[in-house]
Design goal:
- By secondary structure, the protein is α/β, with parallel strands linked by helices.
- The chain contains 7 helices and 8 strands; from the N terminus they run H-E-E-E-H-E-H-E-E-H-H-H-H-E-E.
- The protein has an 8-stranded mixed β-sheet with strand order 6-5-4-3-2-1-8-7.
- Helix 5 runs parallel beside helix 6.
């Protein structure tokens, strides 16, 4: 079972689940933590849901770090994992993460839900704000009359201001809306399916 086969099976399933919902965006390789890590697949609609893929040919070496970072941002998370790694992976993710087991056969990959995801209640405001490009972050500040004198400041400071001034639920709502409305996603695959670039402007060193 290869990672690309697992990804294709998941995206096909997600596309079928959401095909009637024109408000849903399915995004590949969305940058998190200032673009230093990427979630394999994100689904953006009324919530921001992430899917991390671990095929039988992968290792779990990065999973603890990924679990920590993604748990600061996403409303829901699901690990899609091959049978080879399932037992070990369960102990490496938070209990609110969902789990989908992937098994290969002559007919392709079968996905079976082992555990449903629960809603995350521990978002980290700054990491959520970091998902925004500078113009998107300024636009949100303007909505709250907080942008005066801030348009020329570094994006890191703007993210910090958003995280400090907005309640985390409101911030998450505004960030989700901005991501869904972003038009210049790369390599569009279909009407509601996109690849997301890591924006150099969000380099954590700036």
């Amino acid at each position: 079972m290869r990672d690309i086969d697992l990804r294709q099976a998941l995206v096909l399933q997600l596309s079928r689940m959401h095909e009637a919902d024109g408000d849903t965006r399915i995004v590949h390789e969305m940058g998190v933590w200032a673009g230093t890590v990427r979630i394999d697949v994100a689904v953006l609609n009324g919530e921001m849901s992430g899917y991390e893929l671990k095929s039988d040919s992968d290792t779990l070496a990065r999973l603890p770090l990924q679990a920590d970072l993604y748990s600061r941002v996403f409303d829901r998370m699901t690990l899609v994992v091959g049978s080879k790694h399932l037992d070990k992976a369960v102990g490496m993710i938070p209990p609110w993460w969902g789990i989908i087991r992937a098994t290969g056969s002559e007919n392709g990959i079968k996905l079976k839900r082992v555990r449903s995801s629960k809603r995350n209640v521990n978002h980290e405001p700054y990491v959520v704000a970091e998902l925004l490009r500078k113009d998107e972050a300024i636009a949100i500040l303007e909505q709250y009359d907080l942008a005066a004198g801030w348009k020329s400041k570094r994006v890191k400071l703007i993210h910090e201001r958003l995280a400090r001034e907005l309640p985390v639920r409101e911030l998450s709502k505004r960030v989700l809306c901005a991501l869904k409305n972003r038009q210049d996603w790369l390599r569009q695959n279909s009407v509601h399916q996109f690849d997301m670039a890591v924006d150099a402007e969000l380099n954590p060193m700036l």
